Amino acid sequence: MESYFLDWANLLLRWVHVITAIAWIGSSFYFVFLDSSLTPPEDEDLKKQGVSGELWAVHGGGFYHPVKFAVSPPQLPKHLHWFFWESYSTWISGFALFTVSYLYSASTYLIDKSRMDWAPATAIVVALGFFVVFWLLYDAICRIFGQRKNGDAIVGALVLVLVCVASWLACHWFAGRAAFLLVGAMIATSMSANVFFWIIPGQRTVISQIKAGQPVDPIHGKRGKQRSVHNTYFTLPVLFAMLSNHYSFTWSHPQNWLVLILMMFAGAAIRQFFVMRHGYKLGRNGNPLPYALVGVAVIVGAIVWMRPAPVATPVVNAPVSGAASADKNGASSQNDFKAVQAVLEQRCYMCHGEQVQMKNLRLDSPDSVKQHAQAIYQQAVVQKLMPMNNATGITDAERALIGKWFEAGAATGP
């Protein structure tokens, strides 16, 4: 029952997390597009009001005319929408999902004893430390270098180094699947912290100054804009890290830390293309296509580099006897299943046997194996997700043996 309720919690939290993430990322992408597409106002009345940019757009059968006041409007409107719950809801649901999926079962999902054989409590503390330490270092980099000459380039280079170090450590300390997700959650935590500690407080200060009739200090808007731009570059790397846990060929690679770095770098480069393309159309910057080409080239290079080496399919010979030769096909199928049973007994029974049935699945029964043959093939051969973190040391040859058995019809008897 515990596993059943955990599965429901995982499903519902994942559902909420995806919905809120769509809202947050969507609003982030929209405002980056909006800022990049604004043009100086043509109407004299708008100029007198202090409008710094405007945009005409058509959507859903209607025309929209958003305008931007760079520092502050002449007066505050009665109703002002704040964009923060999208961020907070995404982080809260994501952290809850991370807790249910990984921290609650740290010994199973977070720890890989071949990398670091530590107690679950220690692994949890270190994992949470990634969130805190990365935010503190990233925030310090922004504070120290963000306002200097070429500050954006300096911050970008230092944050890249910081992400690389964190990725290397995570992939050497934790199970590969958890490491990728941990790095994504680490960056996402800093994104939400940007909103909580910088963007929203700065906006509240501006509004307080307007209400008090004081001159508005533009530094708050500049700082908030800087962190908002950082968030948009973090988005695609975070999404890759979050989605990669479904594709074991990424996090199970011997150099998985390098795979993670390359793919996140490619995501940031491609995001740069989308950020700059609107300005390019208005003649504000050069053609950003090279950024996209670099990102695509990195992805293609990773695909070629990571391609799996051919694995010879083991041949299982049928036993030689008079009865076997009379029914060669039946005996061969039975012999194939006996070989598969031997693999399941050695690699899978400890979690899916008579004593323990994780996910309500038993593999010590031929009928159950036949019933779940598709899932066994998908999890053990195609996706290589099971055994979890390969805790039982299943080999590629044994996976190939299961694949050969499944593709031959998954027979469990004569």
How many helices? The count is 17
Shape estimate = elongated
Give the total of beta strands.
Answer: 4
| Strand composition percent | under 5%
Rg over CA atoms = 27 Å
Mean pLDDT reading: 87
Which structural class do you get from the secondary structure elements?
mainly alpha
Fold topology:
Layout: H1 2-37, H2 44-49, E1 51-54, E2 57-59, E3 62-64, E4 67-69, H3 85-103, H4 106-110, H5 120-145, H6 151-173, H7 176-211, H8 219-243, H9 248-251, H10 256-281, H11 289-306, H12 322-326, H13 328-347, H14 349-352, H15 366-371, H16 373-382, H17 396-407
Antiparallel strand pairs: 1-4, 2-3
Structural features, described:
The chain is mostly helical. Helices cover 68% and strands 3% of the residues. The protein is built from 17 helices and 4 strands. The chain has helices at 2-37, 44-49, 85-103, 106-110, 120-145, 151-173, 176-211, 219-243, 248-251, 256-281, 289-306, 322-326, 328-347, 349-352, 366-371, 373-382, 396-407, and strands at 51-54, 57-59, 62-64, 67-69. The strands form 2 sheets. It has a two-stranded antiparallel sheet. A two-stranded antiparallel sheet has the order 2-3. α1 (2-37) crosses α8 (219-243) and α6 packs antiparallel against α10. The radius of gyration is 27 Å and the shape is elongated.
